[in-house]
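Per reviewer request, we include the raw input and output of the structure prediction for the construct analysed in the revised manuscript.
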Amino acid sequence: MFRRFSIFWGLLFVVGCSSVIVNQFDQQFGEASVQTRIFSETHPPAAEFLAEVKPILDQRCVMCHACYDAPCQLKLTSAAGIDRGVTTERVYNASRVTAAPTTRLYTDAKSTQMWRQKGFNPVLNERIQSEQANLEAGVMYQALKQKRDYLDPGNEILDPEAFDFALDRAQQCVGIEGYAKVQASHPEWGMPYGLPAISDAEFDTLSAWLASGAPMADDLSAHNQLAEQVVYWEAFLNGDSLKEQLMARYIYEHLFITHLYFGDDPNTRPAFFKLVRSRTAPGTPIDEIATRRPYDDPDVGRVYYRLAPERETIVVKTHIPYRLDKARQQRWTEWFLGDDTKVDSLPSYEPRVAGNPFVAFQDLTVNGRYRFMLDDAETFIMGFMKGPVCRGQVALNVIQDHFWVYFANPDNRYEQEQAEFLVEQSDHLRMPSVEQSNVLPISAWLNYSKRHRKFMDASIDHVNQWLSKDSSILNLDLLWDGDGVNQNAALTIFRHFDSASVVKGTVGRQPKTAWVIDYSLFERIHYLLVAGFDPYGNLGHQLVTRLYMDFLRMEGEGSFASFLPAEMRYDELRSWYIGADKNIIEFVESRPQEAFFKSAVEYSGDGPYKQQLFDMIGEKLAPVLSQKHQITWPQYSREVTDFAIQVGAWRGGAIKLLPQVVFIQVDDVEKDEPEYYTLLRHNAHTNISSLFLEDNNRLPDQDTISVLPGLVGAYPGAFWQVEKSELKQLQQTLVQVHNEQGYQAFMKRYGVRRTNNEFWPFSDRLHQVYLQAEPLESGVLDYSRLENR
């Protein structure tokens, strides 16, 4: 009885305290109500925001507060995101039983008032609009001021008991009514969290803006200058014929996460657009259709595909630039609107049709669909990493840390004969996304594993029939050579534990595995991990997606292994799955002998065959292999080249102590600007088939490193700064690091820690050089993975 009453009085006390605090603010500044803050960019106070305030937010705040994983969903990338505020609900929640409501900025609510109804609390004052109220009753100002009131440690490691940088850490997502309690409990926090305070001048600018009521605008001036291009492309994407409508639907479902830009945009840094579905036709305001997935039922008689200006700050972790120009339009017309394409009716939006591209788009030629994806293969591979599935280690531990990707030749006879076969196998090719966002993991997993097995058995029979006509055709001509000009023919994928990157070319030492992707595999990966994945889905949806990707990875690896001599393929495949779950081993070893078709690739001697295969493919693709991420002399200095070669030859040792991604600033007294390089750590594994116990499969003594020019990756784990003349000394110091204390000493000498007094000037210079070097691909980096060491 006492416990029951103590709980009751405790709850009453908490509610009472909250009510008292709310009443205090209400009595002092009036009741809260949404304020009008967002204006046209021509409104003088809003124009001042764009010129003076937004650059500070982009350079000091957006590196943590962007995208789905922004703490408390506070997105400081645009006026609407700032005005929306915070919520206690998380987008990434691996334990939820049922799918969560979607909270996509600009899509799931059309006004700040609607966000309040969805449970978001303001970080700006929404009471009486006076200077005093705007500061005292605004969370943003209080967080900035709190940071200034606390003494920074100055280039020292932050107390791990006070600062938690884990991605799944507890978050304090409170409105102004609860902020005093958070501040009292954690006086050392404030904003920017775990980073140096902003400068006096920056604080004064933000304070003046907040005191004035925080007027804001989105800068659409560059977009408005491109109205003619928008009209042209919207006309192309909204043709009336069934063929044109089906083409537009296919294009949208593949480009909805990209940032489109025009090839004739006169600006060095182009204006970016998003392709959206709208209820309204071109020439009228966009009324976006909000659905969980791009192929969900729009519930309208006619869908229009519109180009909406990208209003948010460009951040690297979601930035996928895609060029629109006349040459691309001509290719699309050839692939989708030719005489060989016949469309008598449009596919329905029923999930079993719309969620299966082999059914929904069977009237578009397979060659056209495959050519569309190959044309910018890096873009679609990038979607797997920068799309909605990319967050978290469990989502990415389905791939190796470093591997190469090749593609099947769209002009080989086998690919040309795929159309009818894929339609026949459409039921076996159904993916978990067909089940929507609430999935029972075990039953769904068993269902789809059986379907995939039936598809693989049918594929083996299909290939055997094909090879029975001419067994000599299983050779390297089956690989796409980029048509002699396209550098997308070979890609390198780097996994950084809980994020990943892709670049053109075959970068780094020869990897443990490689994939060969054909049309059906490419399409399935896209619909599994991009179009069909719902970050708001339940635990079952996320687990089944991850588990199904095991099959697709093994399919790509098996296609690569098929070019090896038949007698050694089993051994090679087994070496990739040492210690794997027995079900995975059975899956690998259950491939019937007839699946190991005789390779017509000619090898010399007794091996090593895999190395020979890599060399032969490299020779075949040499004319189109990108060299952008290769460090060679004399393009790069002798000091840098030696460092990259020698460090790239390391295996094990100090590597296991390094972050996944390190950006290195190399200063040269003979140059005005520094050079930047990326050091990537590659974690070795016995196998990558374990869902949660990845550490049990680690082989740290076999870890390796790659050093690349420029910045690769969106989530740096550390910054190093060194004079070019001292690169050799840095290398010698690093090789002597044997424990955490040794690495901390190394960081004190060469690192730019998150507490360094020069952290923000370093960050500003890095972003400036990045923008100059990569005006299309650069953006604001994410600092949530910066280590506290």
